[in-house]
Design goal:
By secondary structure, the protein is of the alpha+beta class. Helices cover 27% and strands 46% of the residues. It has a single domain, classed as Hypothetical Protein Pfu-838710-001, CATH 2.40.320. An eight-stranded antiparallel β-barrel has the order 1-5-4-3-2-8-9-10, surrounded by five helices. A two-stranded antiparallel sheet has the order 6-7.
Amino acid sequence: MRQHEKARYEYRVFATNLQATAARLATEAHISTSESSDETYIASRLNIDSNVKLRGSQLEVKILRGREILFELWEPTLQAELPVDVEIFLEQVAPCLGVQIDLVSGGVLSAGEIMSIVERTPSVALIPVHKERTKYIHEMGLSEFVDLSTPGWRFQSVAVESGDIESARQLLQLADIASLTNESYPAFLQRQAFS
């Protein structure tokens, strides 16, 4: 397992067109990088305070640690190389989804086995998401613009994040997205999967 990153204050919005916001962030960034990825989120009908996904060869979990002003404080708690021990899945992943899963301890789970478990577990769903992401590095933290697509829908997302609440506020002012609802990936994907 990789060492955990620090908790960060985040503000994220989703919409069908956030190009103007992305352009504004790009002009104020010191550095920008672009990447594409295919990720499989595990959305839960029972919990939006945990972000669980399969990305590349890893199982990743972030936990919502609190809210301050307009921001959510998210902390990465698991970045495990696949296959992952059954005990890790039972102790660190299933509770985050709000479900109880019966598995025999002592083995390991591949990405395919985890997806099979999710498919037969009520109240959770797999959501494959393709992302075209541009990250912007600013003096006070990070921002990103993401084009998201999955079978059935397409959206864009912009987020600002920083380990410091005052820097996060400055980034939010720069992005000018406070008029839109701060919505995490788990909350957004729950709406898409179960509404």
